[in-house]
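Example record

One chain of 181 residues, shown exactly as stored in the release files.
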Amino acid sequence: MIRFKGRAAVYGEVWYDEEPAGDSRVDIVLYHQRAAPIAAARCTPRLSLLTALSVGSDAVQARFGKYCRYKIRRAETKDGLQMQFLTDPESRLNEFGAFFDAFAGQKSRQSCDRHWLTAACRARQLALSVASRDGEALVWHAHVISGKTAGLQYSASCFRNRENEYRALVGRANRWLHWQG
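Predicted C-alpha cells for this chain:
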C-alpha cells in the first residue's frame, strides 16, 4: 500500500488486486485499476491495454506492427542506447522529476506528483527506467508495481524544438524502453 498524508487525512492507495493490510493506519483507501469494482463503492471505469507476458517475447512482439518491430530492432542494434531499470529509485527521484517537469512544461501538462513518487518509492512500489545515449537521458518511465502487475504512470521524453533526426531517435528510444521495461 502506498501511504501519504493529505491535508486532513492519511490516504492509502492499493493497486490492481492488492488488498489493504488489516492495520494499514489510513483514513481513506483508494483502489486503482481493479479487475472488478468494490461493492457499494464509487467506481470510475477506465480503459487500459493489457499485455500478458506469460506467452513469451516472440508472441508479444508478433502482435506489433512491422514498422514498430523495425524501430525497436533499429534502436537495439544501431542507436547505441543504454537502459537502466531501477527498482530502488529513491536516489534518482529528483533527476526523474526534473526531466518529467521539463517535458510537462513543453506539453503544457501538470508537473509530476513528487509527494506520490516518494510515497510509492518508500512503499517499494515504484520502478523507474531510463533510456539514454552517451550519458544523455532521452526517455524516462515510472511504473507502479503491485505483485506481478505493473502499470505505466509517467512517461517523458524531451525532443520538441529539436531536429528531425533527434526526434526520430527519441521516438525509437521510447518504443525500445517500453519493450525493454
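Notes: Strands lie at 2-5, 10-15, 28-32, 82-86, 126-133, 136-146, 149-157.
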